[in-house]
Amino acid sequence: MDAQSFLAALAPAVTDAQARERFLADPKAVLVAAGLDLPEWFTVSAREGDVAELTITLPALLDPDADLSEEQLAAVAGGFSGGVGDRCGWK
Length: 91
Description:
Layout: H1 3-15, H2 17-25, H3 27-33, H4 70-77, H5 84-88
Helix pairs in contact: 1-2, 2-3
């Protein structure tokens, strides 16, 4: 999903009360339904406020010399080659 598609997935929550309720209740489900491929362990939260904001909390720093878990190896073998995500299990 590119940035434009991501913003398009958010747009209904800004202009439609029912879409806003759905997004606030389960933002991850809305984003996944719009085509964003998120790993099961990834948490998404949403809140109302005066300013649109995207906050990303990174997991603990990984040792580049450490062995990857089977789950991480499977995700990396799945073809993701975008930096941190391949070490964290993103597809």
